[in-house]
Amino acid sequence: MRIAYLDCFAGVSGDMFLGALVDAGVSPEVLHEAVGALNIGASLRIEKADRSGISATKVHVLDGTEVAETAHHHDEHGHHHHHGRHLSSIKKIIRDANLPEEVKEKAVLAFELLGASEAKIHNVPVEKIHFHEVGAVDAIADIVAAVAGIHALRVDQWFCSPLNVGGGMVDCAHGRFPVPAPATADLLRDCPTYSAHVENELVTPTGAALIRMLAPTFGSQPAMRVQQIGYGAGTRNPKDFPNVLRLSIGESAGATHSAVAVLETAIDDLSPQVLAHVTEKALALGALDVMSTAVHMKKNRLGTLITILADDAQVAALEDLLLRETSTLGVRIHHERRSCLDRAHLTVTTAYGEVRMKLGSRGGVVLNAAPEFEDCRAAAERNGVPVKQVMQAAVAAYAGGQAK
Q: Where exactly are the transmembrane stretches of this chain (predicted)?
């Protein structure tokens, strides 16, 4: 199984994430094309940088011909530009871009997470939130390019260290606040954090949103055979502190057991329409799976048991969703230990086009192989054939060794 580990000993920001991706092997063209597809006049400049003796990659976002004045650049806060946007306009920019659907949806999710935190902090509806900083050109480019790079890596599972948030005070659009900034602090609920080494902001709202969107497993580095290492440079270069984000990518080398949070609630008056809505919202918030089970409840009433599987970082948002969007009076939350097959992808060539195959293996032996349904559906629509025909062709191509 291909896994990645983010070592956030110096925090995380959008530009550091981009630098780590490129330094770990993501083609710069992936990022350039993603930013160009937004049609917002932004571009990237990528260069090597030294941070306390460590060679790293620094990514600058340019607005026109000038480097964008990033309001939440790592450790530096100008807050002087006024290129703010509402969430709806940011989502439209992303969804109108010529990018893979998965990239667009993940980027939108990152901004929805930001919007939800801002709305909570200011106690206003999310649609009225005006992104003073994160709505700027540079932050949109940061998030979309990062998601495009993540998509290109094809990592099966992400892991992340506890996050060093830094310390001191930070200037925000609404005043001077202690680190982490209010929106960042809300985004990092249920994520392991600490403060050490420097009196500067180390985790920015953009960086926190990317971490929440990824929904990684937090902890120390898992057993893995590291194949690629990338260092993404922050803006500052302190003498005794390497201001970099380290990204390690490789193959899992240990038992693939992990913990998963389980949220449950049983309801006897939930309409099918609301159930469908809650399911869609839960998945958009990063739930691993959502299940509905018919149950026989007290007073001989038939009801629905909603079960949501999620990583710890998503628990608070999903708990809030169930309490706000359904008629339940409570949610049960517990953790289960699960065993997973090592996951990998490969592409097969069929008469209807290329189709990705999902492989599940243990001990190097493939136990399950299945075609990606969305690839099959797209190929079926292009060729005017039943989707099952494409699925059968993909399985036959895999069995015949026609894989790339």
A: none
